[in-house]
Amino acid sequence: MTSSRRKSAYLSGLYDGSPFILVIVPFATLFGVLATEAGLNVLEALAFSVVVIAGAAQFTALQLMVEDAPTVIVLISALAVNLRMAMYSASLTPYIGAAPLWQRAICAYVTVDQSYVVGITKFERAPEMTVPQRVAYFIGAVTPVVPLWYAFTFVGALIGTRVPESWALDFAIPICFLAMIAPMFRTAAHVVAALVAVVVALLAAGVPYSLGLIVAGVAGMMAGAQTELWLERRGAAA
Question: Which ranges does the record mark as transmembrane (predicted)?
Answer without folding.
Answer: 20-40, 46-65, 72-91, 135-160, 167-185, 191-224
